[in-house]
Specification:
Blueprint lengths: L7 E7 L2 H6 L8 H7 L4 H10 L3 E6 L9 H21 L4 E3 L1 E2 L6 H13 L6 E4 L13 H10 L3 E4 L5 H7 L16 H16 L1 H4 L5 E3 L6 H12 L9 H8 E4 L6 H11 L4 E2 L9 H11 L4 H16 L3
Parallel strand pairs: 1-2, 2-3, 4-5, 5-6, 6-7, 7-8, 8-9
Helix pairs in contact: 3-13, 4-5, 5-6
Length: 321
């Protein structure tokens, strides 16, 4: 490389004090992670600079505002997004933002908040985290959010949260005392978010909104590896069930957040195309430097391909200036 490429990371989290006060937020048990989640200034910028990250797209950590009481969800979410806007406005050359969305309230209000943050505050899309009040986000009650995202031409980033208690009880409870990360990044996040990805394709939402864009982190939660098998098996259900892989490849984009495997990325590139993959770290749950070291020095990519992965695709998909 003649010089270090510009690097954008877009699954990078923080915590808002008002939401911490009223909701159980993921990741606060570890004091070092908590310190980083609470920082949108000196420490975050220092660690970005040390790893060579030029720009972060910030997002409220899971479960964001999706478990708030419906009566207060909209007001609190608007205040959260306004404070995030102030942080971005203070460092516009270093930060962008995904909107938190109040999905426990009326979906039209959540859609209106997406529109407000995009058109008034300059946000690049919205991020949703796991279930909303125990309901998968493919449910038609949430479709006004997707309709608005298509109208605004911005993506919705589907981020995990801890799965439904019934899933944990049935699948993992006997191992959780010794391996608590099973309910999170080790497996639970993938169970929930990959399931949501499949449900979105089957729900018909992409037929209703043919230009809707969805982002999945963690190299697509494993779905790129399974596309052929899912598509082949669903086709046995009849004519109405065909085309799963085609819809996924049209509507989904993925990131490398917390998944720095060259072999896995090679699979994703061959299945989806490099143009649909963006670099991310998953800070502060994952350290910045292993991610940039991997992307800059381990990946067997040309300079042009590396530039697409590290910033070019994000600039195009998120319309970053």
């Amino acid at each position: 490389m003649a010089k270090k490429p510009y690097i954008v990371a877009l699954e990078e989290h923080y915590h808002d004090p008002d939401i911490v006060a009223v909701s159980v937020m993921e990741g606060r048990a570890n004091p070092e992670i908590r310190r980083r989640l609470d920082d949108l200034g000196e420490l975050r910028l220092k660690e970005m600079d040390e790893a060579g990250i030029d720009f972060q797209v910030l997002s409220l950590g899971a479960p964001a505002t999706q478990r708030l009481d419906p009566g207060s969800a909209l007001q609190l979410t608007r205040a959260v997004n306004d404070r995030l806007h102030e942080a971005v406005r203070a460092k516009p050359d270093r930060f962008g933002a995904f909107a938190a969305l109040p999905t426990t309230t009326e979906a039209k209000l959540a859609a209106d908040e997406l529109e407000r943050t995009v058109t008034k505050l300059g946000f690049v899309g919205g991020m949703l985290h796991g279930l909303s009040a125990g309901i998968f986000l493919d449910d038609k009650r949430f479709w006004p959010v997707y309709e608005r995202a298509e109208k605004l031409d911005v993506p919705i980033y589907m981020h995990p949260a801890v799965p439904h208690p019934a899933v944990l009880d049935a699948y993992l409870k006997d191992y959780l005392p010794r391996h608590p990360m099973l309910q999170r990044a080790a497996w639970g996040f993938t169970i929930e978010t990959a399931t949501l990805g499949i449900r979105l394709v089957l729900s018909g939402v992409f037929d209703a909104y043919p230009n809707l864009k969805i982002i999945l982190g963690h190299l697509g939660e494993g779905l790129p590896f399974y596309l052929w098998r899912i598509d082949s098996a669903l086709a046995r259900d009849g004519e109405h069930a065909k085309g799963f892989r085609e819809k996924f490849l049209k509507h989904f984009y993925i990131t490398t957040s917390g998944f720095f495997s060259s072999i896995a990325l090679e699979c994703c590139i061959k299945e989806m195309g490099l143009e649909r993959i963006m670099f991310s770290v998953d800070y502060p749950y994952v350290d910045n430097k292993p991610g940039t070291d991997w992307a800059l020095h381990e990946l067997k990519l040309s300079d042009a391909e590396r530039e697409k992965l590290l910033s070019g695709n994000a600039k195009r998909i998120l319309k970053l200036k």
